[in-house]
Amino acid sequence: MRGVETLENQKIERMRELIRILTEAAKAYYQEDRELMSNYEYDRFYDELARLEQESGTVLTGSPTTKVGYEVLDELPKERHESPMLSLDKTKDIEGLKSFAGDHQTVVSWKLDGLTVVLTYRDGRLEKAVTRGNGEIGEVITNNARVFQNIPLQISYPGELILRGEAVITYTDFTRINEEIGDADAKYKNPRNLCSGSVRQLNNEITARRGVRFYAFALVRADGVDFENSRKKQLEWLQSQGFDVVEHYMADASAMEETVRKFADKISYFDVPSDGLVLIYDDIAYGQSLGRTAKFPRDSIAFKWRDEIRETKLLEIEWSPSRTGLINPVAIFEPVELEGSTVSRASVHNLSIMKALALGIGDTVTVYKANMIIPQIADNLTRSGRIEIPAFCPACGKETKVQNVRGVETLYCTNEACVAKKIKAFTLFVSRDALNIDGLSEATLEKFIAKGFIHSFADIFLLEKHRDEIVEMEGFGEKSFANLMAGIESARHTTLSRLIFGLGIPGIGAANARMLCRHFRQDLTMIRAASVEELSEIDGIGEVLAGAVAAYFRDKENSANLERLLGQLQIESPQPENEEEQTLAGKTFVITGTVTHFANRNELKAYIESRGGKVTGSVTKKTDYLINNDTASSSSKNKKAKELNIPILSEEAFLAL
To answer: What's the chain's Rg over C-alpha atoms?
Structure first.
């Protein structure tokens, strides 16, 4: 069986390589207008992949030879597990692991921090996927599992296969997804929360975009296969069927320290969230003979990382306002080395935690990294309690108040117009389609606002005067500051349409901003003086948008801030537009599903708007075209378009317009 498994594993790895090559080639050809290989080479690789899939009986997710359709459900059905999924007993002591292993060989693997999922295959095809839930009852997520990044849709084993694994989202994808979210308060707190929400979506198109991956860690049933009484051989067999299995090593008591160290050395750069290790006896019969307690199985145990703790001195509490009005205390302390990196700040979360720690400036505190990643204060050894809660918001100077909700005290700014609550507006102002200022992320803007450097758009162009403070801030230095200043200087030279869009007038996107500027011949004075009636005459600007534009420029505070801003800018005339490019003027589009000719739907939207068209989110009587590569799908938008006799176009048909 060993030789057969090795051959099958080689086929699986070659299939993964071919999928990567073909996917990259297709993306380059259809989305980037360049060729990585000839049609002959592409067909040769495609045929090789199809042959390997037929020989192995396995079809991996993402294979160009198959396509999984998207489906929307009204709710996730519930299902009871055949046997309860128990939690694991835990230890933070390597000696405890040695004692557990005793004279036996164990399989040591990552304890991944995601959502446990049970997969069932019958006749070689994925039939069912169910979450762990409460251990007794889980939710059926089969549609979502079919669009995970790495689950095989078809396997060679024809019998009933049941296995368990962890659905996870990598730190890389977590960062990417959070960067795409403009609203700071809407960002996900950690990869596990994001994964949980992604796995349990009612629309599996959303799941597909999130990059969920699955790592098998236990085989429950595969009748007729001889695993030679070995957990390790079960994992090897799952790998031969096309599954990614959790990284694992064999270890007895004598090798336990070295094995744990091997994992610990990787944790700082390991891209998959993990909160420890799992040990299970390799001898299946022995492990099963031990039975279980009321709460835990006796054949396995979890190892939680023992936190590395350092003493340091608390230097200050930085009060950081957010767009919800919440003012968070952040502890700033003398830098210490933790888990291979230097840390000097940690969120205290709320006033209740700060008071419980009795924090005071100059106190000696102990700090650690939760799960070896997130800095936290463990304890306060001095407990002086010398922290003054600010009576005024550091961003706007207005009064603060303490709120107590279910025993948790938090500090809020009472000013509805607090500049910190407008972080979304500042983020839009510096975005690519507006002033396009490199080096000003939402997180950086939040820091500058909290420090009181920014109160209005014009203040962004005056950050030079805060140089000494900025270069000393965490994450900054002379080089970062110089890059930021260069980005700001470049942004001083802009166009009127970028400025209008960047002001954040309700309902005015980049395309409408260009329409306004074209209609009024790039004259800001005319735009500011225009009446609702005049604005309503512009094609694509209805009465509601016209009212929003007029109201914005009539507001005295907006006008004063705009005057200050204009003193920092040089408005340049745009390049003359090619009239032939405005072929979509007056047309309204809705985009749904995945795209192939464009990098994403936002890029397609920008393409339409640059040619005078408009993109909305829902199909109505005003919609001219629905763009959906799956023109025959039964999605709600397709159904609505058919009801209203609205043409449904593939990308190819749209581009032919």
So the answer is: 29
What residues are labeled active site?
111
According to the model, what pLDDT value does residue 78 have? Answer: 84
Q: How many residues does the chain have?
A: 657
Q: What is the architecture of the domain spanning 310-413?
A: Beta Barrel (2.40)
pLDDT in the model for residue 67: 55
pLDDT tens figures, 71-108 = 545 567 888 887 778 778 888 788 889 999 988 999 99
DSSP symbol at 80: E
Entry pTM: 0.49
Local confidence band at 574 (pLDDT 50, 70, 90 cut-offs): low
CATH superfamily of 580-656: BRCT domain (3.40.50.10190)
**8 Å CB contact between 508 and 515:** no
CATH match for 419-491 among 1.20.1530.20, 1.20.120.450, 3.40.630.30, 1.10.150.20: 1.10.150.20
Residue 536, CA distances (Å) to 23, 421, 515 in order: 47, 31, 12
* CATH number of this structure's domain 78-303: 3.30.470.30
The pair of structure tokens assigned to 364 is 């000696």
d(CA 137, CA 133): 6
Angle at 62 between CA 57 and CA 68, to 5 degrees: 90
